[in-house]
Specification:
The complex is a heterodimer of chains A (217) and B (86).
Chain A (H helix, E strand, L loop, with lengths): L2 E5 L6 H11 L4 E5 L10 E4 L19 H11 L3 E5 L1 H9 L5 E3 L7 E9 L15 E8 L3 E3 L2 H9 L3 E5 L10 E5 L5 E4 L17 H5 L4
Parallel strand pairs in A: 1-2, 1-3, 3-4, 4-11
Antiparallel strand pairs in A: 5-8, 6-7, 6-9, 9-10, 10-11
Chain B lengths: L4 E10 L6 H13 L11 E8 L3 H16 L5 E9 L1
Antiparallel strand pairs in B: 1-2, 1-3
Classes of the chains: A alpha/beta (217), B alpha+beta (86).
């Protein structure tokens, strides 16, 4: 059982993810340069936070054309677990693995704080262990995290029970207080919060541990 | 025979339904500058391109693909294309 962490030029949470998954949780993890296309032997792939390709054009717009993401489409279609956090979530929406888009925070500020969250759906393996309506706290750190989608898409997300996490105090203007969503099948999760920054008791809370254990559970 | 060259400009705008906080902040600065009467200000992008293509239709076809798949994100943005002979 092994986890891959994709590394783009400008990623800056890739080592933090590896520290969380391998250092704190003891799960075998390797980092994968974005030009690699071989995802064989992996059970889960994480797209980390950061500023891939400098966030030029739009966040995630250029990263979505990286060779590794061509392979990721097949990996996800075959049921492999895919987690995108922060910039990784932005890449997953640009890639079309998740609906909607992430846009500039309502108040324009870059927000770096602990965000109180609510588990909306515990249908998927990522959040099953928390249980629906559980309150948790995870760090957020983003300037462009305002989730935006059409009314039709929002209804589809609700009908499919695909809204995974909501903010309890909407920090950025996201539609429906949305902090994280899954695809319909449930093997792909994108969220703006950083679970990898909430795994090591030495640097704060540990509410992210269960979510990251969902990579291989 | 030389391949025709074209110049193009793609304008990318936020969809009307999408909040533009940067535009609102700029509108606030316009008021502080003393420029009165601006009731709406929204910020987009202009992308200028030059390309070679067999004819204008072919140039337009490529630029439409580019605009729809890369330059704009249709979830939040609209785009328009201006094409001219170089």
């Amino acid at each position: 059982m092994s986890i891959g962490v994709l590394v783009f030029p400008g990623s800056n949470c890739d080592r933090d993810v590896q520290w969380a998954t391998e250092g704190c949780l003891g799960m075998s993890t390797r980092r994968i340069w974005h030009e690699e296309t071989d995802l064989s032997g992996l059970d889960a792939v994480v797209l980390p936070g950061g500023f891939s390709y400098g966030d030029y054009l739009r966040c995630g717009a250029i990263a979505r054309f990286a060779p590794a993401l061509e392979s990721l489409l097949g990996f996800a279609a075959a049921g492999g677990r895919v987690l995108g956090s922060c910039n990784g979530f932005q890449v997953l929406t640009e890639l079309g693995l998740l609906p909607g888009a992430l846009t500039r925070n309502r108040a324009l500020h870059f927000i770096c704080e602990d965000a109180p969250l609510q588990v909306v759906s515990s249908r998927t393996p990522w959040l099953k262990q928390y249980g629906t309506d559980t309150a948790l706290s995870l760090p957020i750190a983003h300037g462009e995290g305002r989730y935006q989608c059409s009314d039709e898409t929002l209804k589809q997300l609700q009908d499919a029970d695909a809204i995974a996490l909501r903010y309890r105090h909407n920090p950025n203007g996201s539609v429906g207080d949305i902090a994280g969503i899954t695809n319909n099948v449930g093997n792909v999760l994108g969220l703006m919060p950083h679970p990898e920054r909430a795994c090591d008791p030495a640097i704060g809370g540990t509410d992210g541990r269960v979510l990251l254990q969902g990579l291989l559970s | 025979m030389t391949v025709p060259r074209y110049k193009a400009r793609v304008l990318v705008r936020l969809r009307p339904s999408v909040l533009d906080p940067a535009g609102e902040a700029t509108r606030g600065a316009a008021e502080r500058l003393g420029v009165e009467g601006i009731s709406k200000l929204r910020i987009g992008k202009a992308i200028e391109l030059e390309l070679e293509a067999s004819d204008a239709d072919e140039a337009r076809r490529r630029l439409e693909l580019l605009s729809d798949r890369l330059l704009a994100n249709p979830v939040i943005e609209d785009w328009s294309l201006e094409l001219q002979d170089s």
